[in-house]
Amino acid sequence: MGKFFVFFLFWTSCLIHVETLTNFRIGGELACAYNKDFQYEVTLFEWDWIDDDKIGFVSSGRGHGSGGFHIEGKDTHDGPGNNYFDMYLQIVHTCNSYENFRQKYNAFIGHFPIKHGEEYIKNYNINITNAGSYMASKRKLINPAAFANFNGEWSGSEFPLK
What we know:
Layout: H1 2-15, E1 22-31, E2 37-46, E3 53-54, E4 59-64, E5 66-75, E6 84-93, E7 103-113, E8 119-127, E9 133-134, H2 144-150
Parallel strand pairs: 1-8
Antiparallel strand pairs: 1-5, 2-3, 2-4, 2-6, 6-7, 7-9
InterPro entries: Transthyretin-like_sf (IPR038479)
Signal peptide: 1-20
Protein name: DOMON domain-containing protein
């Protein structure tokens, strides 16, 4: 009976594997130099070699000149041999000279040592004016020939419609 009890204790200790989390509370202001209303979505990511980890919910909003954001996220580890979280904010915004074009900008916010139970609280001021790459528009584009025909500018000789 004593051997069974020792084996049972050993077995249950092997099954119980507790990983504590590293917590992130990230906030700040997004600055837009254009004198217009803009929209934004901010997501917290941890960079990886193969696939980045989304570790925070999306913080979205509207601003004029600036807009605030706050994200909370958590992670347990960053793969073998890596002792740091490589964090960035993915910011999708409309702060550009166009009316409704969206841009995606990745703002690197730092390397954070993996310390289980640690909570990182950071604030950032990020200028997103025309920052990042343009994304596909959600609007349906108009065929130029159809637009000319609609406006009575179609001569009919260039591309006959049948």
